[in-house]
Every structure is written in C-alpha cells, then in structure tokens.
Design brief:
Structural class: alpha+beta
Strand order of the largest sheet: 15-14-11-18-16-17
Number of strands: 18
Radius of gyration: 26 Å
C-alpha cells in the first residue's frame, strides 16, 4: 500500500492507534522507568498525556490535517504529566505548528514535521540529556527527512522512522551511563517507539497486539538483580532537588501589561531554582515541570504572569525512600504470593503537606496518608482510592485543609464504604482530632469526639507574601513574612524569626500548656533553636515539642493547646 498524500482523518486514526498501542504497553514502559530520579512512572505519564491528545482529536471531524494537529497539540499540553509527557507534548507541538496551515501533507512535509517537533522539544528542555526520548526522536526525525529526499511514499517514510527509532533506542545505554549500569533502554524512548509503531500500523492497515509486550529482552540484558528499579542503585541523600513541582499559569492581561511574557526568559529565570526544567507555553498559558528545593519560589515567580492552576508538588526523597522500602520488602518475600490485607474495622485517612508531617500522622494512628495540602489539593478520585486502599468497614477522613473538605465529603458520597469527614482545616487540628479517636466507639460518636477536639487547638503558620496587598488592617509588601492564626493574617515583618515570635506572643495565653513547632523546609535547625529558646525563656510554664515536618511554603506551623 502506497500513500502519497496524508489527510486529517487518516492522521487522526494514526493518533488514536498510537495512543492505544502506548496504553496497551504502558506497564512495559513503567518497567523500564530508570531515569531520572523518582518522578512518577514514565509509561503512566506518557499514556495519560497521549490519551488526552487522542481524546481531543476524537472530538473533531475535519479532514484538515493542520486542524487535527492543533487539536492533538492542545490535548497533549493540558494532559502532559512528568518529564516524558511534557517532552511528548512538545514533540507534537512542533509537529503541529509545522503543518498548521496545511489541508494535507506530502512525504517531505510529513517528514519535516517530525524534525520540527524535535527542534521544539529540545528548546523546551533547559539541559537536554542524550540517551533519552529526545535522542530517539531526533534520530528518527533526521532519518525521516533523509529518506523523504528520494522517497515520496508516506508509509515507507513512517517505516524508516520506526526502524531508526528502534535502532536509536538500542543505542541509548551507550549514551546514558545509568541505563548501561542497570542494563535497560530508555523508558521514554520506548514509549515514543510504541506511538510510532501505532502510526505505522494504521498506515498499513494492520492490527497490533492487544496485549502488552513481555520482557524477555530484559533477561538477556541483565541479571535478576537488575530487574529492580534503578532507584535502589541511588542514595536518597544524592537527590539534590527534592520536590518535583508542576504547575500551569493562566495568563492575565493586566499582569502581562507590566510584565510581558517571554518563553525563553521565563525558562532562564526558573532555571535558577532547580533542574529537570521543562517549560511549554501557548497564547493562553504556560506549563512548568521542575525539580526544586524551594517549590514556593517557583510558584511565586509564575504568579507574576497570571493565575496558578493544576499545581502538584511531590516529595521525591520520600518517594525514593518508599521505593527502597518496597524493593527490600519484595526481596524478602520474592517467592511468596502477596497476601491480601485483612479488612479492619476502622480506617483513618489524613492529608499531609510534608513527609515529616506524614510520619507524625502515621505514628499516632493514621492508616493512609495522602500527600497533598496547600497548592496540591488531592482530587475526589484520590480520596476515593485512599478509602479503597485502607480496606475498612468504617473510614474517617481528616482533610487538614479547608479546600479539601468538599472533595472529601464528595468522596464519602461516591464510595460504598461507610465513611465520614471530620472537617479539620489545619494540620494541628488533624493531629488533635486523631488523638481523640476511640476505636471502641461508634462512627457517629467518633465524629462528635474528633470534631470537638478541633476547638481545643490553635493553629499558627509562618509563610511569605507573593505580592503587595492590604488586608485585615495590615500593609503587606511582597517578601514580607506573615503570621497567620486560624486563617487570618495577624502579624507581618521583614524578618522571618521576628514574625514567628510576634505570632507566638499572640497565640499563647494563660491557659496555654503545650506549644508544638513543626519545622518546614524553609526553616533551618538554627531557626528552630531560636524560636525554641524564645518560648522557653518567655513562657516557662509552657511545654514545647518540635517536629521536622518538611512542609513546603510554610517555614513554621505552630500548635498551641
């Protein structure tokens, strides 16, 4: 079969077939997920990204290939997740831009669109790494243009793309030492190859297997030891930038009037905050992926251009520690069948905005901790999954954030489990409520006990202002440190520690007995020592506890009981 001209409807079918083939093999790609540091699963991220693009394409009926490309690009942009998903979206963003004005394309135009996609993707990555999906895409794109100089059959050009992508994928271990060490090919490159194979199968009118590829090649390449995740070859302390930070900025015309947006400048400015930076933008919004040690700085910078949406912050050190724990458990019971967890009578679910806080919750009785909170609210679906995971007859949910309460209540309505929400709005409230939990009481009684406990604790937080404002009688300038008590800003100061001292003075009264300091990622041990000494010297009747919460954005969280 020979195709000299490619039109929109056939290209749309290619996209759907490519997305389906990737979806079928997402678990296979996940099994190769060895680079970079823990940042979600490559196969899952690429699958969700490509599926979003295919869904957008399915909604249009035009035969104009340029419009089909625009729909694909839009869907991929909104659905892109993780490094690999964002790079995939950029490959097809450049592809789409190249064909945007065309009703149909010939062989050379088709091949050139792949090359244009590679150029766009490389620009989006601050420090491109060879031996990854970028290399596979580049080699395949170059081959496409080379073949198209003498071959006008689009099927043959796509065949050349697939063949070269396979060859390039096999070369990735020679370019990236970590792949060679573990003995696998690049996971992102493998995902891209599955997409390209779907394209080719559609052009040829062939069916692809509806079951995932197996992993025999892994056994040829490496020993059983290497089947483990590459994370077990790394040390947690080697992760320089601990938070995988993703967010989107929806542009606001007023902000752009005083601060015009430049994608190159935006990318360059953000690069100072971390690595693994990816920035992609269109006329309405910009999407960011970065590994940062201070996520709040990235978010504050983004707000210069508009409203923050779709924010997600993941603690990669915690992820890595969990991966090592899982590897150890798997090794200990390598030949044992997984025994399902017995259903418990009560399950308690909490939301945590820092790995240290999560550990505290687990230590006082939480069965499942959802990572989330300020700037990273879990969805209703996330909470429903947690209800299923806890596997209990009765479930209690502590949202610990006012913006999560409605999603938690909705999850209770959707779930078939007997579940209730104790409407904790802060981490200290959640801890106080959990300590009031009585496993011998009825669900309704526990709701009363735990809800009552919310009023027994006062919460204070120290954070920073991201813009100038006037609120609650205070004139606040960008960068000021604000002391917040029960959701109201009551103090502000240029100095973080002075702001903390002033907040504590307003929170502690003659009835106060215990003050808990929860240290955030923006506070040092020396900062904590200063605050601890201040409380002990000024309030000698008050007992003080300190926990390393590792929460982002809030240097300190104070609990006063």
């Amino acid at each position: 079969m020979s195709i000299k001209v490619l039109e929109g409807k056939q290209f749309a079918k290619m996209i759907v077939q490519g997305a389906n083939h990737l979806s079928t093999n997402a678990n296979y790609v996940d099994a190769l997920n060895v680079f970079p540091v823990p940042d979600g699963d490559t196969g899952t991220n690429m699958n969700l990204s490509m599926t979003s693009g295919a869904k957008e394409v399915k909604n249009i009926t035009t035969n104009h290939i340029g419009k089909v490309g625009v729909a694909l690009s839009k869907g991929l942009l909104m659905g892109a997740r993780g490094n690999s998903g964002v790079i995939l979206s950029q490959l097809f963003r450049g592809f789409a831009k190249h064909i945007e004005q065309k009703e149909s394309v010939n062989g050379l135009e088709f091949a050139s669109a792949f090359e244009a996609g590679v150029e766009t993707a490389y620009k989006a990555v601050m420090k491109p790494v060879e031996g990854t999906i970028l290399t596979v895409a580049k080699d395949a794109g170059n081959k496409a243009v080379q073949v198209a100089q003498t071959e006008d059959d689009i099927v043959q050009i796509m065949q050349a793309i697939v063949s070269e992508a396979k060859a390039s994928l096999e070369r990735t271990p020679e370019l990236l030492p970590v792949l060679k060490e573990v003995g696998v090919v690049d996971s992102g490159g493998q995902g891209l190859l599955f997409v390209y194979e779907g394209f080719l199968a559609e052009l040829k009118g062939e069916a692809l297997p509806d079951s995932s590829a197996s992993l025999p090649k892994m056994e040829e390449l490496v020993s059983a030891e290497h089947h483990k995740s590459v994370q077990s070859h790394m040390n947690t302390e080697d992760i320089v930038f601990g938070y995988c930070t993703e967010f989107m900025v929806r542009f606001e015309s007023e902000k752009l009037a005083t601060n015009p947006f430049s994608e190159d400048k935006f990318r360059q400015d953000l690069s100072q905050y971390g690595d693994s930076l990816l920035v992609i933008a269109d006329e309405n919004l910009v999407k960011v992926h970065i590994h940062s040690e201070q996520p709040g700085d990235c978010l504050s910078y983004g707000q210069k251009y508009g409203n923050l949406i779709n924010m997600k912050i993941e603690n990669m050190r915690l992820q890595h520690t969990n991966i090592l724990d899982e590897d150890e458990k798997a090794s200990a019971s390598q030949n044992d069948a997984k025994v399902p967890q017995e259903k418990r009578e009560y399950g308690v679910i909490t939301v945590s905005m820092g790995s240290g806080i999560a550990e505290v919750f687990r230590s006082i009785g939480a069965h499942v901790v959802i990572e989330g909170g300020q700037t990273m609210n879990p969805s209703t679906e996330d909470i429903v999954k947690a209800i299923e995971e806890v596997n209990a007859e009765k479930v209690i949910i502590l949202p610990n954030n006012k913006n999560i309460i409605m999603a938690a209540e909705q999850a209770c309505e959707v779930s078939e489990t007997d579940a209730i929400v104790v409407p904790s709005k802060t981490v200290p409230q959640g801890m106080s409520a959990l300590l009031a939990f009585n496993p011998s009481a009825e669900l309704s009684e526990n709701k009363d006990y735990m809800s009552e406990a919310l009023s027994h604790v006062k919460t204070g937080q120290i954070t920073f202002a991201v813009r100038d404002t006037s609120i609650d009688g205070l004139e606040i300038e960008k960068g000021d440190f604000m002391g917040i008590e029960e959701g109201k800003i009551i103090v502000k100061d240029k100095d973080k520690l002075q702001s903390a001292k002033s907040l504590i003075d307003q929170m502690i009264d003659e009835d106060s007995e215990i003050v808990t300091i929860i240290q955030g990622e923006d506070a040092s041990k020396e900062d904590v020592e200063v605050i601890l000494n201040y409380i002990e010297e000024k309030y000698d009747d008050v007992e003080v506890e300190v926990h390393d919460g590792k929460q982002p954005l809030y240097a300190f969280i104070f609990s006063v009981e």
